[in-house]
Design goal:
By secondary structure, this protein is an alpha/beta fold. It has 19 helices and 10 strands. α7 packs across α8. Bound molecules: zinc ion.
């Protein structure tokens, strides 16, 4: 880009317009009527910063990557007023609309129209509104070592359709950015909207003043991690309660999921969920694995590693009896994932019934069932897939009431379920 234009862009970025008053900015915005059936009456979510007087939401796109974009703008490598060319970006499979999209407050943490803005809001876009998709749908093939092992062991058989002869697995994948309808989020977690807005403002160090100054703006695009859904088989079958559905809702655990760290069962649960999803699709059913970026029970990886050390250094060593206690000591809570928001993605796909839910977590199960989805069977991971050091986690979870098809240990027996000591982990 021309240097002069770059300089002008930067000056524009330096000029700050306060957003507290309606007359200052957002004076040209389209209202949002959350949950209304006609998308044109519902209105587009306009959260881009390229045309400030047309915005109708707090925050902006790309979740946590918002901050990286700001850095690119600051070092003048990203033109602030860039408007994406959305040609050919539309979804490879049309999803919805479903009744769940229009049932009041069934979906409050994503925009169900997020994958269709290119088509639904075409006229607005042509009129110069910078409206961006918050959901993207594409096709992919997966190559996963555990699935190759499942094929070698005869548990999976290539069919040339879901699983190809070379072991690749065909999937549809859907990426979601968070779009929060604040009155619905408040209701879901059981607080007053005003209280929620005030706490969000304070606890982010005052990141979005409109949370407290502009109660008329009801939608927030928070700077948090996104979610991804992988679908095995025909996406449209997810909404058909008569088609068998195998489902794993998985919360991120980078250490295990990506690096194979053996202190927990996350990757085995994930790959078993994928194996079962593919197998179900091969039998004429459909499989769904949803991946939420909620690392370390949404407490973050630093907290998680601190807890590992605290667990392993405590008197008597790392035992299943003290598993949850050490997390609470370090983080203040055992868990901050708020599974109440998780079923939104299931409702986006129109899911009414899950035949096989792969999860030990009662919080996940309860959130799904109380959102109106029937769960027929719950599946826990086969014992042979649990790494030895992860027995501490699995036995502690079972004793705490997590779902299991196996036996539950007594308190005394839990004390004898021990993980490796830190000294054993160090390799010189
Ligand atoms: Zn894990």
């Amino acid at each position: 880009m021309d240097q002069d234009i770059k300089e002008k862009e930067f000056e524009k970025a330096e000029h700050v317009v306060l957003t507290s008053h309606k007359t200052q900015i957002y004076n040209n915005s389209i209202p949002i009527n959350w949950g209304v059936k006609d998308p044109l009456i519902r209105g587009p979510i306009i959260a881009t910063t390229s045309c400030e007087n047309k915005r109708n939401a707090i925050g902006t796109h790309s979740g946590s990557y918002t901050v990286y974009r700001a850095l690119s703008i600051a070092n003048k490598t990203y033109p602030k007023s860039h408007v994406p060319d959305l040609k050919n970006t539309h979804a490879t499979t049309e999803i919805g609309p479903f009744n769940s999209w229009f049932t009041p407050e069934k979906i409050v943490s994503i925009d169900p129209w997020g994958a269709q803005v290119q088509r639904v809001f075409k006229d607005h876009i042509e009129d110069g509104y910078d409206i961006r998709p918050t959901i993207a749908v594409t096709q992919a093939r997966l190559q996963i070592p555990e699935l190759a092992q499942a094929i070698s062991a005869g548990r999976l058989v290539p069919d040339g359709k879901v699983i190809l002869e070379n072991g690749d697995v065909n999937v549809t994948k859907v990426a979601f950015e968070p779009v929060w309808y604040l009155p619905g989020i408040a209701k879901r977690i059981g607080v007053e909207e005003g209280v929620l807005r005030k706490i969000l403002f304070k606890e982010t160090g005052g990141m979005f003043p409109e949370l407290v100054t502009r109660p008329d703006l009801k939608v927030l695009l928070p700077p948090i991690g996104s979610s991804t859904a992988y679908i095995f088989g025909d996406v449209r079958d997810l909404a058909n309660p008569d088609v068998e559905l195998s489902c794993r809702v998985h919360d991120e655990c980078n250490g295990s999921d990506v690096f194979g760290s053996d202190i927990c069962t996350c990757r085995p649960y994930l790959t078993y969920g994928i194996e079962h999803a593919a197998k179900t699709a091969q039998k004429g059913g459909v499989g769904l694995v949803v991946y939420f970026r909620k690392e370390g029970r949404a407490l973050g990886e630093v907290t998680k590693f601190l807890v590992y050390n605290a667990r392993k250094r405590q008197k008597g060593g790392d035992s299943a009896a003290n598993y949850f206690y050490r997390t609470e000591c370090v983080a203040g809570v055992e868990d901050a994932r708020f599974q109440e928001l998780m079923p939104d993605i299931l409702h986006y796909f129109g899911i009414q019934k899950i035949h096989k839910l792969h999860s030990m977590s009662n919080m996940k199960y309860d959130a799904i069932v109380s959102s109106g989805i029937e769960v027929v069977n719950r599946i826990s991971i086969p014992d042979e897939l649990i790494p030895e050091d992860a027995l501490v986690e699995i036995e502690a979870k079972k004793a705490a009431g997590y779902f299991t098809q196996g036996e539950i240990k007594t308190k005394h027996a839990l004390e004898s379920v021990q993980g490796r000591e830190l000294s054993e982990e160090r390799q010189v």
